[in-house]
Design brief:
Elements lengths: L17 H17 L7 E6 L6 H5 E4 L4 E4 L1 H11 L5 E6 L5 H11 L2
Length: 111
């Protein structure tokens, strides 16, 4: 169940520990949950959005067949939304920021 939808950007130089920090936070929250503290466990889905085409990331419409094919992101979002647990689901784009995919992500996160 999706209760909220947020986008957070962690910026810094290559090798500065952004990914390590995010995964350390995920692990700390999950350990706190396992110890009975009032914190959510976290599941991470990490990908580099620059490693695939935009149509593979978001999906695409075939003009010939008039069929929509989901990309990786809609499949992950749907799986996270169907997760019956109280765990948090984080989709992490780990890679260089690109104007095209970041603008598309802004549109996805808009209400």
């Amino acid at each position: 169940m999706v209760l909220e939808r947020h986008g957070v950007m962690v910026c810094g130089e290559t090798g500065s520990g952004k990914t390590v920090g995010i995964h350390a936070l995920k692990q700390a929250l999950t350990v706190c949950k396992e110890r009975g503290e009032n914190f959510p466990a976290v599941k991470c889905y990490t990908m580099n959005p620059k490693s695939i085409l935009s149509s593979q990331l978001y999906g695409n419409f075939d003009e010939n067949t008039h069929e929509w094919s989901d990309g990786i992101l809609p499949v992950l979002y749907r799986a996270a939304a169907r997760d019956p647990s109280s765990d948090r689901n984080w989709v992490i784009f780990d890679g260089p920021v690109d104007a095209v995919w970041i603008e598309n992500m802004n549109t996805v996160l808009d209400d």
